[in-house]
Design a protein that fits this description.
Strand order of the largest sheet: 2-1-3-4-5
Order of helices and strands: EHHEHEHHEHEHH
Radius of gyration: 16 Å
Distance between the termini: 13 Å
Shape: globular
Number of helices: 8
Number of strands: 5
Length: 201
């Protein structure tokens, strides 16, 4: 049987800044799927720490991806929020990225999963900043990507509540004091693997 293929598009959260390669959520999700007897290739990841929506779009262009994938995930927007970029611009650019993701899935919109943006405001890195304002802005960006995903028919996976638990559990944050740890990514991966198992079967 030919293994399923998986393309993961994003930023630091997809490439797994400050965690090992095996702790990245796309890699953990694939391992979980394999443990269920679902053959999946190693994920192809197009993601770089710090990328905004337009930078991801440029990265996708430069990667010159050919062919289609059985599963595509998209998680992007935290750097738009962090840099104070507008919600309107985000909506517009995210819509284009989602359409690209759907194209990569061979126009099978139900094979695309949008993940919500984590809330970095609860991390040690954000100490002294307006955490309530960060949370409000993250919620607004997530409301946008959720609505766009719903309108297209793509799946939407809410991992933001997990990341907010870092306020009580420091083990959910990587050593850099900003990004999620492998422990937190494991929870995202479990949810993604459960949804992907339904998508692929």
């Amino acid at each position: 049987m030919v293994p399923y293929s998986y393309l993961a598009l994003g930023d630091s959260y997809t490439i797994g800044e400050s965690v090992t390669e095996t702790e990245r959520f796309p890699v953990q999700a694939v391992q979980l799927l394999r443990s269920k007897g679902i053959a999946v290739d190693d994920p192809k990841i197009i993601a770089t720490t710090g990328w905004t929506t337009d930078e991801l779009e440029k990265g996708i262009r430069e990667a010159r991806i050919t062919g289609t994938f059985d599963l595509v995930t998209l998680l992007i927007g935290v750097n738009n929020q962090y840099r104070g970029r507008s919600l309107e611009e985000y909506r517009e650019q995210f819509s284009l990225l989602l359409q690209q993701a759907i194209d990569f899935a061979g126009h099978r919109v139900t094979h695309v999963v949008v993940l919500s943006i984590p809330d970095w405001g609860v991390t040690p890195f954000a100490a002294g900043r307006d955490q309530a304002a960060i949370a409000r802005e993250i919620d607004a960006f997530n409301a946008a990507n959720r609505a766009i995903a719903a309108a297209s028919g793509a799946h939407w996976l809410d991992i933001t509540p997990y990341t907010r638990e870092a306020a009580q559990d420091p083990a959910l944050v990587a050593e850099d004091g900003l990004h999620p740890s492998g422990k937190d990514y494991a929870r995202w991966a479990a949810d993604l693997a459960a949804l992907s198992a339904q998508i692929l079967h």
